Amino acid sequence: MRTHKVAVIPGDGIGLEVIEAGKQVIEALAKKSGDFNFEFEDFDWSSKRYLEQGEYIPEGGLAKLAKFDAIYFGAVGSQDVPDHVSLWDLRLAICQGFDQYANVRPARVLPGVKSRLEGADKIDWVIIRENSEGEYSGNGGRVHQGLPDEIGTELSIFSRKGIERIHRFAFEMAQSRPRKKLTLVTKSNAQRHGMVLWDEVFFEVAKDFPEVEIDRELVDAVTTRMVLKPETLDVVVATNLHADILSDLAAALSGSLGIAPTANLNPERSFPSMFEPIHGSAFDIAGQGIANPVGSFWTAAMMLEYLGENTAAERLMAAIERLTESGMQTKDLGGDAMTRDVTAAICADIEAQG
Ligand code: NAD
Ligand code: MN
């Protein structure tokens, strides 16, 4: 029996609902397999905890988390805490603390899901986001606070090492896929220092991957290409900020923010990697039982694959595709199914699989 120790951080809002659903689905897969089990440990690191105790992560929290095989994360964000506080104190503290520098965001239209985009069925992308530096390096400051001459700076930091490792990761990803295409996205016409370094290092790394077909695009231009010629893209590599934006667009084009998954990987496995649906805490629908849990299921499939449970990951993806194809959909996709209906249907499918 293989045992996977997973730290669970549901966080806030619908994070609590979709992660609970995801755990049920993982339990169903473990039961079906009989060869592995999951030991979940729940962490109440959330905005509620912050408001009560003044911190998201208790002292020594990250060291405790470091002992797990993976982290299953919901979402963080509350109307009572500034978003930059919740993001930096919880999610980014983990991503940056554990050097999860490769953020992987697959996008494709699942069967039965209607996209508003014509030709969306041709979307089959993986967006690779640099997840440790760049625009989210946390450097900058404010001077003359509150005065008319106040200035705020936001400093982007790009290191050759940081750039090289994310490009190498992206090339490996492209090489492993049938079409073997990689698009470099920057803004090196307007931003002439860090972005130019990104471009240069990309073409250096490219020499080691002759099988990968490469091209480049400016970030503004690539948004139009995503909409107008979705079939021309395969793997895309971009900076922390650019890929953050592009991947939300990708999620919307492929159906709903409620479906899209993310892996925050530390590819060297020196620290645990973290898996989360792409969406936030969605306070507009929290507590109603109507959140789409498919994003957290797809996320669970990525986590299972990372943990070496490929059969279970395939079973789960097959169940997800049968579900979307069947037309059972939550409100975000135009249906009226509840989170628990979708979860029960997925568990039943898994149980019935041969
Ligand atoms: P959001 O993703 O929470 O919601 C955007 C819209 O999509 C909302 O209308 C919401 O109802 C809908 N939606 C999102 N997920 C859904 C699901 N699973 N099922 C059905 N509908 C879904 O983004 P937001 O409204 O910009 O942010 C809300 C809070 O979440 C903010 O505090 C923000 O900082 C935070 N946030 C956190 C993360 C994260 O933890 N990784 C990511 C994005 C936003
Ligand atoms: Mn985002």
TrEMBL record:
Catalytic reactions on record: (R)-malate + NAD(+) = pyruvate + CO2 + NADH
Name of this protein: D-malate dehydrogenase (decarboxylating)
GO molecular function: D-malate dehydrogenase (decarboxylating) (NAD+) activity; magnesium ion binding; NAD binding
InterPro entries: ICDH/IPMDH (IPR050501), IsoCit/isopropylmalate_DH_CS (IPR019818), IsoPropMal-DH-like_dom (IPR024084), TTC_DH (IPR011829)
Statement: the UniProt record of this protein carries the keyword Oxidoreductase: yes
The entry's keywords: Manganese, Metal-binding, NAD, Oxidoreductase
E.C. number: 1.1.1.83
Record domain Isopropylmalate dehydrogenase-like: where: 5-346
Needed co-factor(s): Mg(2+); Mn(2+)
Family: Belongs to the isocitrate and isopropylmalate dehydrogenases family.
Source organism superkingdom: Bacteria
